[in-house]
Structures are given as C-alpha cells and as structure tokens.
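Sample intake sheet
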Amino acid sequence: MLSAHETIRAEQARVDDLLTLIDQCGDVAERANAVRFDQLVHQVLGIGHARTLTSSESWGAVSSALSRAEEQKMDPAVLSRTSWGGRELETVDDIGAVMSFRMQGHIERALAADVDQT
C-alpha cells in the first residue's frame, strides 16, 4: 500500500502527462456533444423521431457530423431539420447512417459554396 505522499506524487505524475490529459479532454468533449446533440434533436425532430435516431447504431456518426457542422459555423438544428426532410426514412435499416450521410452531403455542399464565393 502506498503512503499518502506516494499516492499524491503518483497522481500528480499521471495528471501531468499531457497526452493523457488531451485524451481525457477529447473524451469529455465527445460525451458532452453527444448529450447536447441528443437534446437538440429531441427539440428539433420531436420525441418519437429523436428516439429512433439516437438509438440507431450510427448515432455516433450523426453526433460527429453535427460537431463538424458546428466547427464550420453551421447551425446543427437547421442541419438536423434539413437532413430529416429528405426522402422518407420509415423503411431504412439504419436511420443514423442515412442521416449522417445526408448531413455530410449538406456540409460538403456548404463548404464548396464557401470556396466558390472566395
């Protein structure tokens, strides 16, 4: 068993490891985004559609697409609404995969339009 001083030194060494802190920060940010985007799609799409989307296998890809949209100064609520409004989604196998694909397409088109304007 470690003494109190040894335990403190070991914990300080662990926390001082920059790579560990970077990984932990990224993990916390990813989880925070998932919670935030879960709430967002519930507000934008309604409870039923949002539950279907957030419980899909590809919800992580949707959350990543929404995060990428924010990084590009796009409104994730608008992106969610626009992506949902395409072809019907009732018969798809993985609604998250379809939504992620649609979102990526919207993001790419927006980026291409920005490049064309500059």
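Comment: Residues 4-117 form one domain. Helices lie at 4-16, 18-45, 47-54, 59-71, 76-84, 95-117.
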